[in-house]
DNA sequence: GAGTTTGAAACT
DNA sequence: CAGTTTCAAACTC
């Protein structure tokens, strides 16, 4: 997977090019600053991420480290032998809401690694995230079953899975059973079945 | 190339 | 610590 422009891929020093306009390249929004490098030949405005501004730069670094001592740690574990991102979980994980972790907005996808235990997209994970290690072997293209899409539509009506235990205990159960189990805590299965989404989900579940 | 969308980072 | 704002990159048209 090509990842030539993200901060987690090990790039030779000076080969990053940022385009920061308002951050003076002194916030983690700036790829160069986040990587602990000076801006060199970047397209940034009012850049303070350069040796001439070292005092200010160090102050900012200190402020950021006070807030989060791990702020400058690479987000993806690096293999010391290859100097490339390892296929290990993102340290913080992503928090994608809309892109199903298959666009470069997703830090995991962008780094070429599957979403993992640290990701907060995990409440969608079993239904929505297509950035799974399993799917790496299936791609391209991964086309979700239509039924999965309606599971997504039904999701707001059903209490979300709260823990890994819930997810484990659901393995092997049918989606109708899942709805029934979770419905006890939120809305009854009968009530859910009455909704438009519910009818569609049940219909499709029977067909698939 | 301009405008929009997205999610991390920063802020309140 | 949850909600909101800012920001730069990714994406679309």
TrEMBL record:
Family the entry assigns: Belongs to the lin-54 family.
Keywords on record: Nucleus
Pfam families: TCR
Localization, UniProt: Nucleus
Record protein name field: CRC domain-containing protein
GO cellular component: nucleus
Domain (CRC) ranges: 14-134
Biological processes per GO annotation: regulation of DNA-templated transcription
Transmembrane segments: none
